[in-house]
Amino acid sequence: MAEVRLEHVWKIYDNKVEAVKDANLTVEDKSFVVLLGPSGCGKTTTLRMIAGLEEITRGKIYIDGKVVNDVEPKDRDIAMVFQNYALYPHMTVYENMAFGLKLRKFPKDEIDRRVKEAAKILGIEHLLDRKPRQLSGGQRQRVAVGRAIVRDPKVFLFDEPLSNLDAKLRVQMRAELKKLHHRLEATIVYVTHDQVEAMTMANKIVVMRDGRIQQIGDPYTIYNKPANIFVAGFIGSPPMNFVNAKIVRGEGGLWVQTSGFKVKVPKDFEDTLADWIDKDVIFGIRPENVYDKMFAFAPKEENTVEGLVDVVEPLGSETILHVKVGEDMITAKVDPKTQAKEGQKIDLVFDMEAMHVFDPESEKAIV
User: Fold this and answer.
1) CATH value at residue 150
2) Would the pTM of this model clear 0.70, i.e. be above it?
3) Owning domain of residue 51
């Protein structure tokens, strides 16, 4: 396996459309890195440049320490799994997995060993004589991965491989791919728009927007310390609450003042926010850090706000509340035993230790 490195990589179409802008990224050997972002953010273009399927406008891409800008895709020692799997319909599973090795003129016994070994890893030994039309979506996905495994490449590239599967099978295949990564000790670059896939599978997440990398970090850092409003809002379900606010000085210290409520800033954050007193900020708090007061542990009055329940979404293990607080709508992920009803008043408790504050102009994180 090998390290992949991007240095100041740009992709510009027709001298005007900037699909990828000054991308700098290191994919460490044996790591699982996910490129995450909405449609059109440049993540698939970045993957295709690593694969050699897109020419680089500017910059350099290194694989295993060597510049590969002018190296043909077939000579980069990478294997790519596409969204549509691209299996040959007239070939059996065995033939599909063996095809790439046959083109490279591997000995028959080596091809047979590699195909059967990959099939055993993926649990598809009993499918080797079937044609793709006789397989389920999940089985086809395994065959596509198997075709990559037999190559024994330096780098695996995955382009949204689970997007065609149903929700239950996606969960299963996430776990399978994670186990496969540990077993193969592979270097993997994986593209998805699904934040759950990114959070559950990656060692490192690269969040992209409009062709630019917004933040690089492990899942814990991306979730708990987002670099800006975009990352904070993209990661998490339901997304983070954002409210226009001011930092004001009041009884006992600093407070977050909005049009509909006022909550106390924890002492640990006061030094950081000292320069923002009486200035506009964006206050952020995740729905999972907003509690129904009836089920909050040791609620503080200074962190409690009153609102009017607009929508109740019971999900079994939790309940999502959409609550009107002043002029703002706050989403809360609360205990499923909540008695909240549409049209009723409710007291919400904010876990202010988990609050976020952003600069409204630059949108960068302050806290």
Assistant:
1) 3.40.50.300
2) yes
3) 4-234
